[in-house]
């Protein structure tokens, strides 16, 4: 079920028996010569919507721009400041809580979002604590790429060549979602280097094609389908456990 395809009356009826909503969150940033700029939003959105359709879970709007300042030296990348993303998450939760939602399960596709999402949760819970009231909200963050089944399949398919950014598994999943847009490019070197970075200029200087430790040429549409199945099963376990709270 997708919130954007519901009427308000359908949402009102849904709330009579269900108080949880799943919110994909990601980023719009470069993913090397073969990865979509929207990869980090496409992946959690694809997993969330597939799971929502299968299990009747309501899926909210994808928060598709994240904390990605370090990619801004690559054209097309878009970033929010951490304070901006905290404000966005807080307002989304407040909006939906007003209607009666109590359980907010965020499915993330971008590692750079993790600290900021947790900070947003702390701000939301802090409001209740400082007001000396008990919060009725339950907030949870999961990353589609760290589920048990996804990690095992990723190791089986790609080993160490999966890498840290523009990874083979995320490229494969996004290709499965949009098979008509698969990219082809020569990668030099085949497996990108690893390392640390500070800001956008430093990132571009150290990783000139945008990849970190990865060989996304290994990614296929077929792999993406298998990864989607693994991610849906991981999400099902996480969501069922969360909504029992």
Q: How far is the N terminus from the C terminus?
A: 22 Å
The string of secondary-structure elements, in order, is HEHHEHEHHHH
The biggest sheet amounts to: 3 strands, parallel
User: Which bin fits the share of residues in helices?
Assistant: 40-55%
Q: Helix count? A: 8
Strand order of the largest sheet: 1-2-3
> What's the overall geometry?
globular
Low-confidence stretches: none
CATH topology: Rossmann fold
Rg for CA atoms = 18 Å
Please indicate the count of domains.
1
Strand content: 5-15%
Query: What is the mean pLDDT?
Result: 97
CATH architecture: 3-Layer(aba) Sandwich
Helix/sheet category: mainly alpha
Could you give me the name of the CATH homologous superfamily?
A: Creatininase
Describe the fold and architecture.
This protein has 8 helices and 3 strands. It is mainly alpha-helical. It has one domain (3-243): 3-Layer(aba) Sandwich (Rossmann fold). Strands 1-2-3 form a 3-stranded parallel β-sheet, with helices on both faces. α4 (114-130) links the parallel β2 (103-108) and β3 (138-143). The chain starts with 7 loop residues before the first helix and ends with a helix.
How would you concisely characterize the structure shown here?
With 245 residues, the protein is mainly alpha-helical. It is built from 8 helices and 3 strands.
Secondary-structure map:
Elements: H1 8-14, E1 20-25, H2 39-55, H3 82-99, E2 103-108, H4 114-130, E3 138-143, H5 148-158, H6 168-177, H7 200-206, H8 221-243
Helix pairs in contact: 2-6, 2-8, 3-4, 5-8, 6-8
């Amino acid at each position: 079920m997708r919130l954007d395809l519901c009427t308000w009356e359908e949402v009102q009826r849904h709330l009579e028996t269900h108080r949880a909503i799943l919110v994909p969150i990601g980023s719009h940033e470069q993913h090397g010569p073969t990865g979509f700029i929207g990869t980090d939003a496409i992946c959690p959105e694809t997993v969330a919507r597939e799971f929502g359709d299968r299990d009747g879970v309501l899926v909210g709007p994808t928060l598709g721009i994240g904390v990605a300042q370090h990619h801004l030296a690559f054209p097309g990348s878009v970033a929010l400041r951490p304070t901006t993303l905290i404000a966005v998450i807080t307002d989304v939760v407040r909006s939906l809580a007003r209607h009666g939602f109590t359980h907010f399960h965020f499915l993330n596709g971008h590692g750079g979002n993790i600290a900021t999402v947790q900070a947003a949760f702390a701000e939301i819970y802090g409001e209740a604590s400082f007001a000396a009231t008990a919060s009725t909200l339950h907030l949870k963050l999961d990353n589609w790429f760290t589920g048990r089944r996804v990690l095992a399949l990723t190791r089986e398919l790609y080993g160490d060549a999966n890498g840290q950014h523009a990874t083979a598994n995320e490229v494969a999943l996004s290709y499965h979602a949009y098979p008509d847009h698969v990219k082809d490019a020569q990668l030099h070197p085949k497996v990108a280097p690893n390392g640390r970075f500070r800001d956008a200029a430093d990132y571009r200087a150290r990783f000139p094609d945008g990849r970190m430790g990865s060989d996304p040429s290994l990614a296929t549409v077929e792999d993406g389908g298998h990864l989607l199945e693994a991610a849906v099963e991981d999400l099902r376990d996480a969501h069922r456990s969360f909504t029992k709270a």
